[in-house]
Amino acid sequence: MRRPGFTVDPWDPGYAAAVAVEAMAELEGSSAELDLEVEVPADQWRPITPAPGTAAPKVLLIADGVRRIDARVWVDGAPGEMPAAGIAASYAAGIVRCVPGGDTPASLAAVEVRRALFSSAPSAPEAATDLAVYQAEQSGDGGLDDLSLALQRRLTELEVTLAINYRAESGEDDLLLVDGPLRGRTHLPRTVGYVKTHHTSYLPKPQAAVVPALTSGQRTPVFRMGTSWQRHAWYVKLPVRSQAPWAGIARCEAGADLSGPEVAALADAITLVLPSLAGVDYKDPRAPQNLVPIGGLEKLLRHHLGDPGLLYRALRSAATRS
Predict the structure, then answer these.
(1) What's the pLDDT at 26?
(2) Domain spans of the chain?
(3) How confident is the model at residue 8 (pLDDT cuts 50, 70, 90)?
């Protein structure tokens, strides 16, 4: 029987595909500045397996955050001014501590929840409800995109603060993996950004061809990438049954200030440990890129955000009293 001429993306269709269609195009049209020879010459790119003797990190910390808009609001302005649009939002950050290769299960190391009312109103009051207090936060023009960016900035700041404080207290020899791009966190030592979804192909065609050639536990050579900010990057292959070209591919990022040998050693260390943390498709619709500790942490953080229905009603009740 003739095989069908297609493959199915392993991610649940309720989510965006792991790799967008435009990401399969050539680099032409991208403004990214690339240095493809950080680790090997550009014409010698090939799949890399961590060298024998590569040590996994003694402790792997995984940081992630979640956010939720609890209500859309209007904030009264000064007399004679139009009310300003805003959002009442809850957000939380957490850290999971893992010991690669050890018998100790992953454990929750830190968690913090915050709530804020974002608007462009310069003198907006806090929103005090019977269940929670939403601190006033001023954003730019008050548009939905602007409000969402302001919320994301606060979430990133919370993740950074939580990681810095935990590391200062623990004093462990760790490696920190943050879910998402490394933007805003490049100053953190021994830290890798972990990107699950690909919207852009940054590599020229010869080097991009190495990505679908990877097998589980392999990575591409490290390259340096500059868009609106500078960082090192490489692609990693996680164990997956699908034969789709980019199935199981994640992109990792590290600070631009690292030397070639330093970032290569960091890339080997994280590549060594990631396959053992990969999600499984019968439990997670975004497997394998959505790592098991990340999926568990996201679920726990959403629980910490509280019941959205109760918070919405509390906000409505507080608004009638203001």
Answers:
(1) 38
(2) 21-321
(3) very low
